[in-house]
Amino acid sequence: MPRLFSIGAFAVYVYAERGNPHKGAHCHVRGKEVTTVVSIPTQIVLAGPKLPKNVRQELQARMEEVIQGWDRLNPIPDTENTNE
Amino acid sequence: MNKWDKPDYQRIARADLRGNRIDVHFEDDSVASLTIDQLAPNNAPALNWEGLRHTPFEIVIPTPSDDLEIPWTTIRTLTDKEFSSHLAHGAEQEARQIGIRLKELREARRISSKDLAKRAGITPQSLSRIENARHDVTFTTLQRILAAMGCSLNDLTTPRPLIRTMQALIRMLKPLGFSREFVASRLVPASTVDTKTDEESIVEATANVLGSIYGWSVPSILEGRTLSFDQALTAQVLFKGLKSSKGLRTTAYTLYVHWLAVQAVESTPETHVHPLIKDPLQMRDKIVSQYGGLSFSSLLSYAWDCGFVVLPLADEGIFHGACWRIRDRVAIVIKQKTNHQARWLFDLAHELAHAILHISYTRTTILEPDEISQIPEGGEEEEASDFAQALIFHGKVEQLAKVCVQKAKGNLRMLKSAVPHVAHRHGVPPDALANYMAYRLEMQNENWWGAANNLQVDTPSPYDIAKKEFQARVHLDRLNSEERNILAHALEATG
């Protein structure tokens, strides 16, 4: 299930972006009628209305979880050249 | 509001399987039709397409082990180029914000890029590419870099903004040369002005605009950190075109206009309908034969058809015109408060001369700090004005001036009827000739501007002509919604 957690009346989802050329990591914050899609981790709003402040703060506080959820569903090899 | 911000664009009403295609019906009555191959590449698990169902925000395909949920964003991305492009721009913006922020955090801690790269276990080249947003950074690497500076993910955003009101934002920007009027009329997003947006959101939206234009991270603005202009860019954009007396106010505004010019160039397809003509008389013949006459409107179309990008602005002060070489194109900025077509015609011809004669790979900037003069003395300014006069007056402006004086029998009162008569007879614009006569007389301490102004043509407004042409030539869909909105806002005339 792509649902990660709830923040009040909102639910946070990440999806496996199969078939979708990657447009950058993002999550869906689903309200009752409309979804706000925000970039991970800086929370640029990509679609939908701006989120209430408390939701943004809670999302930021749980950003590690969101990132883990994204990485689990969208694994990419670490491509930066390491010195190790 | 963009269409993707609305529920109808996002919400799925129905999803039908038709052979190897899926039709997804949205609540805005649009239908996205995709092949199952588009939605499930080779490595996808065995999918039971017959079991296709939907929720308001996703379609669901059962698999032997679990369900595969495909969100509305994926369906829209695959079928709506505008949305796909918007998301791609969003990803670029995210990478830019991360890069700028990492660099700010590193510099604030006085860590060299070499040191940080070593501590984070990546090469200095990789770090440089990440800081300059030329490389997608994985979260593992991002967290390694942050940890190597003693930072966390929270440092990428602003947990507790200090700048929460417009007053505080303007106070912070003032030492950098931003006037309240400039911020309010050009940098506060228009979408927030007419709506019931709360002040903190307006501040945040304005910080986003500032970040895009001046390359600052949004957190650094909202945290009230000391900001400065990119020195290399400032040196390139201002060159030595403007005196330092106007100081940072000039820098702030000129960097803004240059940013607009960059967006205009990036959103305009390259067209070279006409090869460049360096001789003003030949250029005039070409315009007259192909556009039916020489006017502000025809010269404007000709300039665009030669591949120049012409950005009109109605702001007052700072500078009066500009030419910048941006990538392999030249952007011309014409900036006038007057509505006289002759004035705009002369300024455009003058800037066009600079663009053709003076701008090069090594000379990338020309700014006009002063009102563009018909009769400047010396150097490039004289050369550009001579070119403009030759173009507008068919290379015989002095001869026409003499004929006007003879026709008026040396009487200033009769000059007003003599000028249109001579202009029509010689096929030159009467309003432009009237301006030239007024300039000439001013040099002899005679004020003939009242009569010259009465001969001016101001409808349709030259600004509207130039704005309409700009809007017809640029492909704004090449920009992201924020860039598009800033550009559209810049073209709105101020009260």
Structure, explained:
The complex is a heterodimer of chains A (84) and B (495). With 84 residues, chain A is an alpha+beta fold. Chain A has one domain. Chain A has 2 helices and 5 strands, in the order βββββαα. Chain A has helices spanning 53-61, 63-73; strands spanning 3-7, 10-13, 26-30, 35-39, 45-47. In chain A, β1 and β2 (10-13) form a beta hairpin. The model of chain A has no long low-confidence stretch (mean pLDDT 85). Chain B is α+β, with helices and mostly antiparallel strands and 495 residues long. The radius of gyration of chain B is 28 Å and the shape is globular. The mean pLDDT of chain B is 89. The longest helix of chain B is centred in the first third of the chain and has 28 residues, at 81-108. A 4-stranded mixed β-sheet of chain B has the order 7-9-8-10, sandwiched between helices. A 3-stranded antiparallel β-sheet of chain B has the order 1-2-3. Chain B has 4 domains: 3-79, NE0471 N-terminal domain-like, CATH 3.30.2020; 83-156, 434 Repressor (Amino-terminal Domain) (Orthogonal Bundle); 166-228, no CATH class; 229-395 and 462-495, no CATH class. At the A-B interface, β3, β4, α1 and α2 of A face β6, α3, α4, α6 and α7 of B.
